[in-house]
Amino acid sequence: MPLSVPRKELLALQRFVREIDARYLAPHTQTTTLAPPARAEELDVAAFAVLAHGALENFVEGLALYVVARVQTNWLRNRLSRSTVALLRGASLGSDPASEARSVFDQIRIAIDEAKESHSLRVGKNHGIAIKHLRRLLLPVGVDVPSDPNLVGALDVLVKVRHDWAHQYRYGARTSRSATDVRQTVQDCLVLAERLCQNAVALRL
């Protein structure tokens, strides 16, 4: 995701989900039935789940990269407390003669550059949106990850649906889910994405 305001990316995510909902889910939610999903509905639910999963993954990864970039930019603009960051780095500042010769500003700038590179590599190697993935990507940059069991549960369901179709079984998921059920699951995941956006914005970067 481009390094733009998180709210804009959240809106783009919400628009995309509405678009794929209209294409894949809406045709199957016009009438109510107690029968198991037909094969056409199963395939459309699978397509929707895979696309929604990918969109959420891109959003979370982009959010992590956005925060890292803002930390770096803000330090260069002297908008952070140098004393606070220096204190956090203090244990290693005195152990490197080359580091001792640098100003505090440059020591911290280099540390931020190194941390940004390291975390960007972690983001690039990420493959998933399970809660453990979100925590690995966002907690190191100061973004709290919601622990609401309903939202975490919805995320787990989306991950499972996508995993079943992509990896477990060649011709379908082990458990069929209706378009209505998966729609609600992804709506809950969007609430989680909105919470993540709010937490990132609250950092005032």
Offer a concise description of the structure.
With 205 residues, the protein is an all-alpha fold. It has helices at residues 6-25, 39-76, 82-93, 97-100, 104-124, 131-138, 149-168, 179-201.
How would you describe this protein?
Helices cover 71% and strands 0% of the residues. With 205 residues, it is an all-alpha fold. The model has no long low-confidence stretch (mean pLDDT 87).
Number of H/I helices: 8
Task: Give the biggest sheet.
Answer: none
- Name the shape in a single word: elongated
Poorly predicted regions are none
Structural class: mainly alpha
What's the SSE pattern?
HHHHHHHH
What is the strand and helix layout of this fold?
Blueprint: H1 6-25, H2 39-76, H3 82-93, H4 97-100, H5 104-124, H6 131-138, H7 149-168, H8 179-201
Helix pairs in contact: 1-2, 1-8, 2-5, 2-7, 2-8, 3-5, 7-8
What are the main properties of this structure?
mainly alpha, elongated, 205 residues
